[in-house]
Amino acid sequence: MTYKTILTCTDGETDGRGRMSAAIALSRRFDAHLSVVALGYEPDLPAYAYGEAPSLAMTQWYEESRKRAETLAEAAAERLEREGARGDAAPLVATYAGAGPAFGARARFSELVVLAGGDGQGGDGAELSEALLEGALFDGDAAVLLAPRELPEKVGSTTLIAWNDSREALRAVRHAMGFLSEAEKIEIVMIDPDEDMAASGEALALMLSRHDLPVELAPLPDEGLGASGALRRRAVEIGADLMVMGAYGRSRFRELILGGVTRDIIRDTPLPVLMAH
């Protein structure tokens, strides 16, 4: 498997973490077509405002958003041409609340979506970045690569698979085969595995070994770090330049209220992370 259609986005505001640069680098690596969605935002008006707000003002807001999106799309297209990347750029106007589903609809026919990972600092763009991620995963049913500020020289040469015996994790592994097929080392990490998880980890290792991939099993205790902390520590220990994991193994609402590995990783992404749901 390889990636021949890659999607990313730009909004001119939350694009400072290298999203476009990462997408261009990966499109070159896989000789892929890169599509860029240029986002312009309409204001989210409360329901009562629609009966009162002057139609002229609403039209003006939309036109300003449309022009901004078109300007961003032109700039993205110029950058693709300047850097010799094959691709296209198109505007998309949506409210902040509707940006995730609208972007997800564009992601449906892409094999890989590249978005910015969290820097652990939060900030104004964090919630929007999570909305775009969720749109790509749920509405687009796409695999998403979260990229840190600086992309490693070769993403996936040492890959950590965060295995928890879930459907989501298995889908992520299958979507990651374009990277795994070029890996020099693959480690299947299981945090405090029970018998079932350990057995499924062995089955996964066998499946990957049949592709002649250099795979190892690593059952590890969390040692009080929690699953996300233990995964981050192991990634540092082995020098991983890609983590593969399932996203939202439990509902988004439960992740929001109770926390979870997905939310921890997307808010602080020290290495490229490929996710699927």
Automatic annotation (TrEMBL):
Domain of life: Bacteria
CDD domains with a match to the protein in the record: USP-like
InterPro entries reported for this sequence: Universal_stress_UspA, UspA
Ranges for domain UspA: 233-276
Pfam families from the UniProt entry: Usp
Entry's family note: Belongs to the universal stress protein A family.
Protein name, UniProt field: Universal stress protein family protein
Organism: Oceanicella actignis
